[in-house]
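Whiteboard transcription, Tuesday session. T.W. wrote the structure tokens on the left side:
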């Protein structure tokens, strides 16, 4: 029996999603910009998806901008803010553990002259709102921080930071990468006070190649691409209607069972932690108070890639870190103070509502067997 534990990288498309995408490809394949019936059918499908996604985060349909994925969403949010406000307020505050789509974008802007403050976790491995607030200066134009960190599952104090900043400095734009939180943890834009928020379909059993940028009403963005009036001119080009409708179908599929799935994965993660902690050669790198969907651990003496392929041979599929880093060190574990000897052996497992109950036992038994088999060869 296959045990897939790499859901933070991507999830298996749900049956209603496949049906929605197929329907668009076979029956409603018109260009939504066309004025005839086929175009109208495509436009109506997109409109329905936009309303569904907006409602899921407490927004209006007009706040939803479709993109090719969360990477593009975050790039548009950050680069647009720098372009429109960075000349007079050239300072960005971010965390030291952001996803590559945010981290690399901020790095590029820094190389162009923006000042960047990267807030580190404290010695206990946790982030504190005060450290982000203390980093704000009169020249700050943007705070960008993720809701749920994608390698260890730690939850950052986004809500407290954003609510405090919005009260004291409403001129600062607030961007949140909510990819690992959307449809898993409570994400409501009014509670969060985010001005901009990135989300992705393929993390919630939707199709790859489509994402959303939530844009609060009144926030002005500068397009980075020109060529048409689609998506209010901010993301020109013919929309990927099948993928967009698939995104809407994924939200409809996930939303009724958010609490049920949360409780299931919390139980699975708790059992996995308990079983792994019983093995003296395993170190848990995640915070037990983090997202129940993600767990990071290290097996002393066995490098991540070796362990990954050992598990794969036994039909257990995990990750050695963020999928976007393709096995390279991202620096996230280092930021938490985890020594290189353990970071080099780190494995990320990530659950979903479809994860079988046997997963904790199967994984732990395989890890123990790997240690007995490989420790003298690695």
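and on the right, the sequence the group agreed on:
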């Amino acid at each position: 029996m296959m045990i897939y534990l790499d859901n933070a990288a991507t999830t298996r498309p749900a049956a209603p999603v496949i049906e929605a995408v197929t329907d668009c490809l076979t029956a409603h394949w018109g260009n939504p910009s066309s004025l005839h019936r086929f175009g109208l059918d495509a436009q109506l499908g997109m409109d329905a998806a936009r309303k569904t996604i907006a409602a899921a985060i407490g927004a209006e349909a007009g706040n939803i901008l479709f993109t090719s994925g969360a990477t593009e969403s975050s790039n548009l949010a950050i680069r647009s803010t720098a372009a429109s406000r960075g000349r007079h307020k050239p300072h960005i505050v971010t965390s030291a553990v952001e996803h590559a789509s945010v981290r690399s974008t901020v790095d590029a802007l820094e190389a162009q002259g923006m000042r960047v403050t990267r807030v580190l976790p404290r010695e206990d491995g946790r982030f504190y709102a005060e450290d982000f607030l203390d980093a704000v200066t009169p020249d700050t134009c943007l705070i960008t921080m993720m809701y749920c960190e994608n390698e260890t599952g730690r939850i950052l104090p986004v809500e407290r930071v954003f609510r405090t900043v919005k009260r004291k400095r409403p001129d600062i734009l607030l961007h949140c990468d909510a990819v690992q939180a959307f449809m898993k943890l409570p994400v409501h834009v009014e509670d969060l006070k985010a001005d901009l928020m990135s989300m992705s379909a393929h993390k919630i059993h939707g199709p790859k190649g489509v994402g959303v940028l939530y844009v609060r009403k009144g926030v002005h963005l500068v397009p980075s691409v020109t060529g048409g009036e689609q998506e209010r001119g901010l993301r020109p080009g013919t929309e990927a209607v099948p993928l967009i409708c698939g995104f809407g179908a994924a939200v409809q599929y996930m939303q009724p069972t958010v609490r049920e799935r949360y409780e299931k994965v919390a139980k699975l993660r708790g059992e996995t932690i308990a079983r792994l902690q019983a093995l003296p050669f395993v170190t848990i790198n995640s915070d037990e108070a983090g997202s129940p969907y993600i767990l990071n651990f290290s097996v002393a003496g066995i490098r991540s890639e070796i362990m990954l392929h050992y598990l794969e041979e036994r039909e257990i599929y995990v990750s050695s870190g963020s999928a976007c880093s393709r096995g390279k060190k991202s620096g996230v574990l280092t930021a938490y103070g985890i020594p290189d000897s353990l970071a080099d052996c780190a494995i990320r497992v990530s659950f979903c509502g479809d994860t079988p109950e046997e997963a904790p036992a199967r994984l732990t038994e395989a890890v123990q067997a790997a240690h007995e088999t490989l420790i003298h060869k690695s």
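Someone added at the bottom: The two ends are 27 Å apart (CA to CA).
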